[in-house]
Amino acid sequence: MWPLATELELESGFELYDYPWWSSTLPCQLPPIARSGIYTLRMAAFDTGTLDLTSNISTAEFILNGGPFVDVTTDKATYSMDGDTVVISLDVDVPYDLTADVYVLMLAPDGQFWLPMGFGEATCVSNIAPIIPSITLDGGFTFSGPAFVASLPADAPFDTPGQFTLFSALVEPGTLTPFSDIGTATYRTISQARALVPIFCVSCRPKGIYIAASDARSLTTAKYSGSLGLGTESAVRG
What's the pLDDT score for residue 42? Predict the structure, then answer.
């Protein structure tokens, strides 16, 4: 919430009626995807720098019949490649009858575009193509829920750590002209690589100096020489 005007000084008896303080031609950028539904406006005056009301709260509602869209989201921002499950959801709203190409594309860390298909699999595409071409949807059609699930570790493109970018759109058939704004979402996959962490025990034995260290999965003991000034540069797992 932010103020429409700050530190505004009004004289006693000031009145204002039917003043067009804001207008916009649809489609507009607020919100980025114009969803159909009831929108509520609330206005009030507060003491400067506080949330102390100095007026009543005025409320107005209007109904917006938004354009058709398909939005894309994920349930997490970061996924571990060692056991997490990637869940990609779609939010579809079609206020009137139309025929459209449905695009859901995934840009992988390798720079390739992939189509997220069913059963947790993805298909690499050399050219951008719709996942569902020329489908006819009835006015009032809606869908909201998971559309793609992949359990990690998995085959390409999920075998490479990095950032994935998702794109979704309803497009005029045979063109690249979207009916509404393009939905986007990003997520990352990270590799749980094993690495030794701070040394907690050093012991001297007849055949050398042994250092015990631990990571998240195991206790590792290693025999080190050269780097400790004991001869050749080597490290042998024990």
Answer: 79
